[in-house]
Write a structure and sequence with these properties.
By secondary structure, the chain is of the alpha+beta class. Helices cover 30% and strands 29% of the residues.
């Protein structure tokens, strides 16, 4: 375990609730991952396994990806939170992914703002994000959140933009 405080696992905004994963999220989680169009098959069983892995990682690290549900509708629209990803536990990455039908409504920005506050509450000083250079909407969200480009790297044939943001 790190010397940082554990991240709050229940966050609320005006329109959204971010909460811990439940096994009942498996079908929607696998449907979200299937929307990626990466040729992978995301079965409900694979969703359950993914949730179990996320919960185990949270137990070890004290940080989490959290499901996002709309407050009024109560529906699962994606996830947002902190992960080690390509970074470190001391300076984790913020990550988010939403169903396509939830794009363009400001939900990613709203959820990520709540996660930025939660990250600051852990005592961390800086966050990272890595995004494919083709993902203009995600890069716009990060710009709104105050992230600045640090560098660009290649992963195979794909260009990855590394961004960072101070939390103080």
């Amino acid at each position: 375990m790190s010397s940082y405080e554990t991240m709050p696992f229940h966050l609320e905004t005006e329109r959204l609730i971010l909460r811990p994963w439940a096994e009942s999220d498996a079908a929607e989680f696998s449907a979200l991952l299937s929307e990626r169009g990466d040729g992978e098959t995301y079965t409900v069983e694979r969703g359950r396994k993914g949730i179990a892995e996320l919960l185990a990682a949270t137990e070890t690290t004290g940080i989490a990806l959290l499901p996002i549900q709309r407050r009024e509708e109560g529906d699962f629209i994606g996830y947002c939170g902190l992960v080690i990803g390509r970074s470190t536990l001391e300076e984790p990455e913020i990550a988010y992914e939403l169903f396509r039908h939830a794009h363009g409504h400001g939900y990613a920005t709203e959820a990520a703002l709540a996660v930025l506050g939660a990250a600051g509450a852990t005592g961390r000083k800086r966050l990272w994000s890595t995004v494919g250079s083709w993902n203009t909407p995600s890069l716009r969200v990060l710009e709104k959140l105050g992230f600045e480009q640090d560098r660009v790297s290649m992963e195979g044939a794909k260009e990855v933009v590394w961004l960072t943001r101070s939390l103080n």
